[in-house]
Design brief:
Blueprint lengths: L22 E14 L2 E7 L13 E8 L2 E8 L10 E6 L5 H9 L5 E8 L11 E7 L4 H12 L5 E8 L8 H9 L4 E7 L17 H7 L7 E5 L2 H13 L7 E4 L19 E6 L4 E6 L4 H8 L17 E5 L2 E3 L7 H5 L2 E2 L4 E3 L3 E3 L2
Length: 361
């Protein structure tokens, strides 16, 4: 799970519901483990004795300098909180992606990385159940790895159906480990679907793309399970439709997706735009102009006001802030819930002021 981020603006993370104590520190790379031909796991250790606390499925924000530019990315913590003295992130090399390429090509044992977190509420910790369905595709498997490892470490009796989709058999992440867990004490029914096979590969499992009929065949009681879904946007859309077709109650479906295109941050609209609002950042003591068509975050970045941000597209919720007064047009992609908006929260990265506003930042 990764996201493209705005230029870094640092602040101390806030502990989130179901998560653990916030951290913002430099960690050392203790090991780098090749998982597939284009996926590696980076094992991170803190400076000095420390136990990390987080919920399985939460993510961290990693900051690196690439070609003189400070960049951030969101990566799910793939290790379980039951092993609290180390963190792992499992990263797929993205062609043309500066951060994933940097991690794969430049980061070695002993390298130092800046991380903060934990963030997110995509976790089974908040939805206890005796039956789970984990649906993932590609690198969307990473939060499922943390959840599955946690259940196994705690010897939980929950029944887990884990259905993962990959491009080819060579792209199946942690296949051997998951098969071992399925054969061990955890009640885990593991299913893998490959879209195709490359020459020389052998695959006897399902082929093609997962849809409602195949999902129903693999998990007949799908409508009675707590469902966690993570993967690329087309997969998320297709599986959301399949879950609706299979009449899975919406309140049992939990979604996460940070797979976004590698794009440069949007430039603020020129200050000469016809309509310009003002944004007061109360804690920073700054009031800045926000031209029409400019988000609150873009206005903050242009003025040098520090606002924590992540995906920049209303998806991850990292920049969630309090709107103290005024109204905004929020064009989010799932990073905030209706009850949070009703309580006065908003996402600066995808919010356009409808007039002068005051923000708690």
């Amino acid at each position: 799970m990764t996201a493209v981020l705005e230029p870094v603006t640092r602040s101390t993370p806030t502990p989130l519901p179901g998560g653990g104590a916030a951290f913002d520190l430099e960690v050392r790379v203790k090991a780098v483990v090749a998982v597939t031909h284009d996926v590696s796991t980076f094992v991170l250790e803190p400076p000095g004795p420390r136990a990390f606390s987080f919920a399985p499925g939460q993510y961290l924000v990693l900051s690196v300098t690439v070609d003189g530019r400070r960049l951030q990315r969101c990566y799910t913590i793939s290790s379980p909180p039951t092993r609290p003295h180390l963190l792992t992130i499992t990263v797929k090399r993205t062609p043309g992606g500066p951060v994933s390429t940097y991690l794969h090509d430049q980061v070695r044992v002993g390298s130092r990385l800046q991380v903060s977190g934990p963030y997110g509420d995509f976790s089974l910790a908040g939805y206890p159940s005796d039956r789970y369905l984990l649906l993932s595709a590609g690198s969307g498997i990473t939060p499922m790895l943390s959840m599955t490892r946690t259940l196994a470490d705690l010897a939980e009796s929950a029944d887990v159906a884990f259905v993962h989709s990959a491009r080819t058999p060579a792209d199946l992440i942690c296949r051997t480990e998951l098969e071992a867990l399925a054969a061990g004490g955890l009640t885990l029914r593991l299913s893998a679907i490959c879209e195709g096979i490359d020459p020389g590969q052998v695959w006897v499992g399902p082929r093609g793309r997962l849809g409602a009929p195949l999902l129903q065949a693999l998990v007949p009681d799908v409508a009675q399970r707590e469902v966690f879904l993570c993967g690329p946007p087309p997969y998320m859309a297709a599986m959301s439709a399949a879950l609706r077709e299979l009449r899975v109650p919406p309140q049992r479906c939990h979604l996460e997706s940070f797979t976004l295109p590698e794009v440069a941050p949007a430039s603020p609209v020129a200050a000469t735009a016809v309509a310009t609002r003002s944004v007061e950042f109360r804690r920073s003591g700054r009031t800045v102009p926000c031209p029409e068509g400019t988000t609150v975050l873009q206005a903050a970045v242009a003025a040098g006001v520090p606002v924590r941000s992540a995906c920049g597209q209303g998806l991850c919720g990292t920049c969630k802030s309090d709107l103290l007064s005024g109204d905004v047009d929020i064009r989010h992609a799932g990073g905030i819930r209706p009850r949070e908006i009703a309580a006065g929260k908003f996402l600066p990265c995808c919010s356009y002021p409808l007039g002068d506003v005051v923000v708690d930042a």
